[in-house]
Amino acid sequence: MMMRPTSNARLADRDGPPRQPPRVEFLGLPFCLLSQREAVHLIVARGGAPYRYVVTPNAYHVVTAHDQPQRLMPIYRGAWLSLCDSRILRALARLEGRALPLVTGSDLVAALLPALGVSDPAGGRRRLLIVGPPRATATTLRAAYPDLAFDILPAPAGLAGDAALRHAVARDCVARPWDILLLCVGCPAQELIAREIGDLGRGGGVALCVGAAIDFLTGARDRAPLGVQKLGLEWAYRLAQEPRRLWRRYLVESPKILRIFLAAHAARALRGARAPSASATARIVGREGRRSDRD
Fold this sequence. Notes:
Elements: H1 8-11, E1 23-26, E2 29-32, H2 36-45, E3 52-55, H3 59-67, H4 69-77, E4 81-82, H5 87-95, H6 105-117, E5 126-132, H7 137-144, E6 148-154, H8 163-175, E7 180-183, H9 189-199, E8 206-209, H10 213-218, H11 226-230, H12 234-241, H13 243-253, H14 256-274, H15 278-294
Parallel strand pairs: 3-4, 3-8, 5-6, 5-7, 7-8
Antiparallel strand pairs: 1-2
């Protein structure tokens, strides 16, 4: 039976240790059974200690995690929240009778910032550090969200392939004051940095791995119209905008999700064929029982 997400009141309960939101596993990754509203409420309520991070896997992320399982799978499994950021993943999960709530990183950030602006019970401003965009982004964000304090850490080029650069960024994040950290540097760099921040001993705050969310929010990049999003074609819209940068991701790497899904589906079907059904088991038990009565 599919687990139901818990209520906002239970998720935000501050008494006792933090509760792990309900989740299911799909294609080797965990996915939380939370709506966007519940996720926002939980992040706002749990913005203090201990440090935690949030991932938003899409089809490309799943493929990347399967390509580098020893390196990346533990990061996704260790995330506090793992939210489905893909209509394609949601559709594939539905074929197996699994209902994954859709919570895209871009929509999550757009809903989170206004909620943070009115949520601090101490009356102070929530502090956000954003890794990735140019420093000028802070001016746009401060005008749009005057109740929040923004700090920008521009991302150096080559983070995905340079461990020393990622370590330097993670160390800088640990040293700066923030309540919410938005890592907007793409997969897998943002997930690797999120994990390293914890390894370096960050004591509190929530880091969100959200890719191009800030670029979409500030208008630095155009997001696909809602109708295109609902058709599951946002990837095509982005590819048309940035073909040289994104062609490999969307035309070579992301389609591998179908192979991963079919392999997982075939493995489950094989396990099901080997295991007797409940009715078959009952028939076997009944026959053995009758045979024992005759003996």
